Each structure stands twice: as structure tokens, then as C-alpha cells.
Amino acid sequence: MKNIISLFYTNLFLTRRLFTAVACCVVLFLLSFFFPWLGIVPDMAFFVLVLLVLADMVMLYRANKPIFARRHAPERLSNSDDNELGIYIENKYLFAVSIGIIDEIPFQFQKRDVWFKTFLNPGEHKLINYILRPTKRGEYSFGLIRVYARSPIGLISRRFNFDQAEILPVYPSFLQMRRYELMAISNRLNEIGIKKIRRLGHSMEFEQVKAYVAGDDYRTINWKATARQGNLMTNFYTDEKSQQVYCVIDKSRAMKMPFDGLSLLDYAINASLVLSNIALMKEDKAGLITVAEKIGAVIPADRRHAQMNKILEVLYKEKTRYLETNMEALYTTIRGVIKQRSLVVFFTNYESMNALQRQLPFLKRIARFHLLLVVFFENTELKQLSEQHAGNVEEIYIKTIAEKFAYDKKVIVKELAKHGIQSILSTPQNLTINTINRYLELKAKQKI
């Protein structure tokens, strides 16, 4: 009995309409002292208000489970993307109700205004959709769904609690990966900035001899086959397949820097995921190595269907470390794991020439055996500072320092090129597009 009474009081809430009505009654009682002719009007008003409150309670509490709510959520969320969730709500009352809904979303979002209002007729149901954009990988805990129902009288509201506590994992941006995949299948990659690159020369992988059709390159005509058949015949070549593409991700403190809510490591992980998927679609082999002060995950290059799931599961758990990158361990691992010449895409960050000089000897050794592509980040905030107008001595000083750091990034690109090392200097937002463009360019030039 005590539990029933406790549940009754804890789920009963007074509305603003009730407080307004009580205030009106109080005013009437005060006025009755100065205007006796009001008579029993205040008493009647208060009596009517009490009857309405009791009627409201009966309407809301006579049914046991008149409201039903359920959260619709995917099995996992995609980091840095807009993820759509929904709340299904159903009214089983015999009258229309005004509904207020609170969804207890994970604390990582730091939102206290997830409040939805709607109106439901008898027997009506709705699906209320909303968007969440996580900026960190990991586990996100959702809590209860709390529904506040008001009858047409609207003096009180009854709360319904639906236990939908669940933990959803936030994976690297698989939605972005699928978007690139769909556009690649439909040959629409150019719509998102992927360039169409003209293939230079022919691949060394011969496929077949076929009849000449208008538009074929005259240089591919097979004169011996033409003589035998009596018709023009051409050699048909296909793209080289089964080339190895390794994404090497630096997890050291250099990748902790945040941009637009995401760390540089998250940008590198999202780009690696998309690049690996594109490489598999091109029938190349994709592999992964993570490194900080020690070697993290190592996934040998493969092109089987399960490879992307392996890469996704590994990248889901990776976090930044707070020590320097152990380049000696990285070089030893690459020499031990990668047995043939491959494209090694090294995602890292350099803020000064000194940072590059410490790693350059190992980068040159890796570049002797593989095609090394170093990907690092342009500091967009410093770029904005360098482009701002300086109005005083302090602003001139800040602008000069910002321009120096921006210039150092360009010097790093030239220094790497001097030693035959490919590089990409990209803003975090354009990292994925720039990396895919360079991969397709290197493949078109048959450098891998």
C-alpha cells in the first residue's frame, strides 16, 4: 500500500495552469475583504477548482498502463556523423492528451534540453525522430524515457517511466564509409570532391585479346592476332589488383589536438576506414598498423569480406597515448609484417621541423622499401589568425607567430619531397577526400 501511495505522489506533477487557477482564487479571497458583494464567489471558485483537480486525477490514474513509449535506436552509432534515433509513443486513453517526453541521453552529449512535446488523440501513435552527433568513440549509456501526460483539463500531469536503459557503442564513421562506397558504386564520387584521374600508360596486367571497337587506343592493336583473324584485334588490359595498402595511424600525443569536437586521431581513423574500404573495392588488399610509444594493433593486408569488420573492431578501441612515437618499433614492424612493396599511408602530425627531424631517418628507411605517403594536418585555427587584420602590436606579434607555424608546415612538405617521400598537408575536414584522391592518383600512375 505504501509503495502504491509513494508511486502516486512521485509521479504526480502540478502544472502551470493549476498554479494560475490557485492564484486567481487567492486574488478573489483578497478582494472579498474589500468588496463584500462578492459573497460566496471565491468559495465557489475554490470548490470548482478542487472538483476539477479530483476529476483530472481520476481521468489520468484510472487506467493502469494508458501510455506506451519505446526508443528506436540503431545497434551502434557512427562517430562524427548525424545518427537518427526515434521515440515511439502511443496513447491508450479514451481522450486526447498533451505529451511531454524526456529521453535520458548519455552524459557525453552534455545536453539538458532533450524535451519533446506532442499531442495524441485517443488510440493515436507517433514516432518522434531526433539527431545525435557523437564526437568520441566508446560506450554510450542511455537511461529512462520519461513521459508526462496531461488530460484536456490540464491541471496536473502524470509521469510514466519506461526502463529503456541500454549501452550503444560508438564506432568510427561507418556512415561516411558507406556514403563513399555507394557513390563509388554509382560513379558519383566527383560530387563530393573526388577527382577523375586520367590513367597514364597501361597496367602490366593483361586480361584478353578482343575485337577492335571505335574509341580503342591504336597502340593496343595486336597485329599478329589481327593477321590471323582478318579483323582488327586489340589487347585489353585491366587494373592491377592485389596491391597492398597499409594505413599506419600514429596514436601519440601529437594526435590529441582537437578540431571541431574531434581529435586528430578520430579524423585519421575515419579517413583510414574509408580508404581501406575504397582499396578493397579496387580489389587491393587493406591492412592496418597503430603505433605510439609501442606497437598497438597489427592487421595483415587482406581483401576478404571480413577484413573491414576486423579493421572496424580494432579502430573502435584505439585511444591517444601521451608519449612520443616509437619510430624504431614501427620500422621493425613494417619490415617484419609487409613482405612486398606496398603503399604505406602514415597518419601523423608535425607542428615543427624539429618534430620531423626526429622521425626523418626512419621515414627514409621505410621509403626505401615501400611507397610512403605521410599525411599530416594543417592547423586551421592558426591559419585564421594569420589571415586576420592586425590592429596593434600584440595582434601583429600573434599574426607573425601564426604565419611562421603555417610556413613551417610548407617547409615540412618540401623536406619530405626532397627525400622522395610523398606527403599530404590537409585540413582535418578534408582529410578523407584528399587521402582518397592521392590513393587514386598513385594507382593511376602505377606507382603501386
TrEMBL record:
Q: Which top-level group of life is the source organism from?
A: Bacteria
Coiled-coil segments on the chain, per record: none
- Keywords in alphabetical order: Membrane, Transmembrane, Transmembrane helix
**Domain DUF58 span(s) in chain numbering:** 209-351
Q: Where are the transmembrane segments?
A: 18-38, 44-61
Q: Does the keyword Ribonucleoprotein apply?
A: no
What protein does this entry describe? Answer: DUF58 domain-containing protein
Q: Which organism is it from?
A: Mucilaginibacter terrigena
